[in-house]
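Q: What does the assembled structure look like for these inputs?
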Amino acid sequence: MKKLPREFYTRGDTLQIAKELLGKLLVVPTETGERVSAMIVETEAYLGVTDKAAHSYGNRRTKRTETMFAVGGTVYIFFIYGMYFQFNVVVDAKDVPHAILIRAVEPVENIEMMRRRRNAKSKNPAVKTLDKNLTSGPGKLCIALGIGGSFNNENLLGDRIWLEDLKTFLASEISTGKRIGIDYAEEFAEKPWRFWVKDNQFISRK
DNA sequence: AAAATGATCAAG
DNA sequence: TTGATCATTTTA
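A:
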């Protein structure tokens, strides 16, 4: 399969890219080279220096936010709530700190592996994680796909993690709404910069 | 009966 | 944000 080219990430229309990311296949091979993959079904755009919800608001550069300033096609991982990772795709040119948070994916290849990893994280071994709960949230998908802090700053054109074309959704198949978990962002909390595949079973909220 | 849904709470 | 628990509703 063919990796999405650098230009897909660097062309410079973050909201458009956030929508086009829906239907793309996220591939994270195991150490032994087995493909584990899932289709992106929910995204949120974070628009650089003007967006109060973005880590890079006001051009803030810290150890954590530094990767947001990398060139489009770089992976930005951050740790949240003391226990979960979030997976973001950096877009636009170097030093333009735009990123797209991947909020939910639909399992495609090697679902068995995702199930094992998710169940292993659960405290109660008796409960079996339902397939539709496997990757229906930003923290869950990172566990299922084995994405941890070491993926921060990884190149999406490398061999550790990448995106491929899979499906294309029409504008009529995409829903739009407010982003989640950013109540502190004042007027930006209302911006309709969250996108998801309409009626998809794997989105993070109903 | 089992499974899905919703509300509440604590976790690091 | 998530998982656990508990209560309620839906489904087979």
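Helices of chain A lie at 6-10, 14-20, 111-121, 138-145.
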